[in-house]
Amino acid sequence: MPAAPDDLIKALDLQPHPEGGYYRETYRAVETIPNAGLPARFHGPRAYSTSIYYLLRAGERSKLHRIKSDEVWHFYEGDALTIIAISSEGQLIETTLGRDFARGEVPQHVVPAGYWFGALPAKGSAFTLAGCTVAPGFDFADFELADRAELKAAFPQHKTWIERLT
Q1: What DSSP string describes 78-128?
Q2: Local structure of 28: helix, strand or coil
Q3: How far apart are the C-alpha atoms of 57 and 76, rounded to whole Å?
Q4: Any bridge partners for residue 9, and if so which?
């Protein structure tokens, strides 16, 4: 029998995330990349890689945000999750993370560095437990929550998603 989302939050010791949902860092590489070895968008060294558990319940969302690294999403448990990403050129990419391959769901998805992105449980989903791996490793200094008005002005064609995820 699948675990209930509140049981997973407790069992995995998940905490509220600033973008919404619940998370816990599960891995941070001990070795770091010095600032001189990173692209100019980074300020300071970064761990080689980091990984988290991330859980969203029905009615919750990961607010639109962007980071300076690629982020790989992995599906673990629960129901399908819709991930929305917007490139700097305004291309909207909608991906469904899950196990129903016949319906086009995928167990893994990459959000490229610099894309605005957010997520919410797909229609009819009770919750999703996913994992997110970031390389170079995640640092809150690289995290930027979207401003609704600015994003709507930049990408008016995506107004509906922007309003849902900000």
Answers
A1: ES-EEEEEE-TT--EEEEEESS-GGGT-BSEEEEPTT-EEEEEEPTT--EE
A2: strand
A3: 14
A4: none
Residue 149 to residue 156: CA distance in whole angstroms = 10
The secondary structure element, H or E, covering residue 147 is none
Tell me the pairing of strands 92-97 and 81-86.
Answer: antiparallel
Question: Residues 25-79: pLDDT tens digits?
Answer: 999 999 999 999 999 999 999 999 999 999 999 999 999 999 999 999 999 999 9
- pTM over 0.85? The answer is yes
Q: Is the dihedral of CA 138, 57, 104, 160 positive or negative?
A: negative
Whole-number Å distance between alpha carbons of 108 and 131: 9
Instruction: Look up residue 160 and give its two tokens.
Output: 């509906």
Beta bridge partners of 130: 54, 75
Residue with tokens 């401003």: 147
Query: How many whole angstroms separate alpha carbon 129 and alpha carbon 49?
Result: 20
Q: Which domains does the chain have, with CATH numbers?
A: 5-164 (2.60.120.10)
Token couple for 10: 């407790």
Distance, CA of 12 to CA of 1 (rounded, Å): 17
- Please, is 36 exposed, middle or buried when counting C-beta atoms within 10 Å of its C-beta (0-12, 13-18, 19+)? exposed
